[in-house]
């Protein structure tokens, strides 16, 4: 027996109170299945509204879901920019990528992760600009839990320190990373070295943060050195062959066999020997076999049968 439409509507409203996302959609589906199959009048209207509700709930759920997904990985390696608000993370990403990224003097300019892919020595490196991390992030202050989740899965951290603001802020952010037990390699970057006030702080910070690189995203000072450090941290090597225009990007410790296989799997069968020049060669034009371990920037000629 169908209930009077008004009673039914009230019951539906009550059943949906406080339900969000998947749970709400499931409940609406149940209600739809229970409603009598009238094709017109009040019941038809009720069904229409319920189906619209499903659509709306789904799009809301998608937004939440994307937030939780974090950042889709792209390229050979991923690095995350971490640091206190206004330390210059977005400015650095803009400098490295040439992308137009929002930069401003106020804090929390960046509200969600912004990924960009840059080419470094022929490899594709994804750099993710994260919103500023603050004290208490591990307890979710400033949405910190989600940020730390992203940092836990990254390949390396670019830790931005503002050389002209109170550096205890950087220390607090670093404490948060330690609390979260981040085990990834960290490159410490002191930014804004162009400012006269920066020099003093830089000396003190050198003692606290290992191998601090001093840069300015404005003048470009230190940027090349930073790129070199990022490259080292990728643990990738580039190998030049006469068979490919671009360098081959391989994992560190790769052998001639890995290289040959990467160029083309059929090449393995035709392989006779390789002639190498570069860091891994004991002398120029050294002839080596499949097991030879390559180094960054080696040049290789492959001889086939
Ligand atoms: N003097 C100087 N100022 C800089 C440098 N890099 C960035 N700034 C300034 O610092 C401020 C903050 O820069 P952002 O790149 O927005 O900083 P952020 O770390 O992304 O900040 P949030 O997104 O709020 O966490 C801006 O006013 C920049 O112009 C630099 O190398 N030297
Ligand atoms: Mg920013």
Please characterize this protein's 3D structure.
It is a single chain. With 305 residues, the protein is an alpha/beta fold. The protein has 3 domains: 5-69; 77-234, 3-Layer(aba) Sandwich (Rossmann fold); 236-304, Beta-grasp domain (Ubiquitin-like (UB roll), Roll), CATH 3.10.20. The protein is built from 10 helices and 11 strands. It has a 6-stranded mixed beta sheet with strand order 2-3-1-4-5-6, sandwiched between helices. A 5-stranded mixed beta sheet has the order 8-7-11-9-10. It starts with a helix and ends with a strand. Residues 64-69 have low confidence and may be disordered. Magnesium ion is lined by residues 89-90, 109-110, 129.
Q: How much helix is in the residues?
A: 25-40%
Instruction: Name the hetero compounds present.
Output: guanosine-5'-triphosphate, magnesium ion
Fraction of residues in β-strands? 15-25%
Report the mean per-residue pLDDT as an integer.
88
Number of structural units classed as domains? 3
CATH class of the largest domain: Alpha Beta
Number of distinct beta strands? 11
Low-confidence stretches: 64-69
Oligomer: single chain
SS element count, helices: 10
Shape descriptor: flat
Name of the CATH architecture of the largest domain: 3-Layer(aba) Sandwich
Kindly, what is the distance between the CA atoms of the first and last residues, rounded to a whole number of angstroms? Answer: 85 Å
Order of helices and strands: HHHEHEEHEHEHEHEEHHEEE
The CATH fourth-level homologous superfamily of the largest domain: P-loop containing nucleotide triphosphate hydrolases
């Amino acid at each position: 027996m169908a209930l009077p439409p008004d009673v039914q509507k009230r019951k539906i409203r009550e059943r949906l109170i406080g339900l969000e996302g998947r749970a709400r959609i499931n409940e609406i589906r149940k209600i739809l299945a229970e409603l009598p199959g009238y094709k017109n009048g009040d019941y038809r209207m009720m069904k229409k509204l319920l189906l619209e509700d499903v659509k709306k709930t789904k799009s809301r759920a998608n937004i939440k879901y994307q937030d939780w997904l974090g950042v889709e990985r792209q390229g050979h390696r991923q690095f995350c920019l971490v640091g206190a608000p206004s330390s210059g993370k977005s400015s650095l990403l803009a400098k490295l990528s040439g992308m137009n990224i929002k930069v401003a003097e106020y804090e929390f300019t960046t509200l969600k992760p912004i990924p960009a892919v840059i080419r470094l020595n022929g490899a594709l490196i994804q750099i993710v600009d994260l919103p500023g991390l603050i004290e208490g992030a591990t307890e979710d202050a400033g949405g910190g839990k989600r940020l730390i989740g992203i940092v836990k899965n990254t390949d390396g951290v670019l830790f931005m320190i503002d050389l002209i603001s109170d550096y205890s802020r950087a220390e607090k952010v670093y404490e948060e990373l330690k609390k979260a037990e981040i085990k990834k390699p960290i490159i410490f970057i002191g930014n804004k070295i162009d400012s006269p006030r920066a020099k003093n702080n830089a000396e003190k910070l050198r003692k606290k943060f290992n191998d601090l690189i001093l840069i300015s995203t404005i003048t470009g000072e230190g940027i090349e050195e930073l790129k070199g450090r990022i490259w080292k941290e990728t643990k990738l090597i580039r190998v030049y062959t006469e068979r490919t225009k671009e360098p081959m990007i391989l994992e560190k410790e790769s052998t001639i066999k890995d290289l040959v296989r990467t160029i083309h799997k059929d090449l393995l069968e035709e392989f006779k020997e390789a002639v190498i020049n570069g860091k891994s060669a004991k002398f120029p034009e050294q002839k080596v076999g499949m097991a030879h371990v390559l180094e960054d920037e080696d040049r290789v000629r492959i001889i086939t049968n």
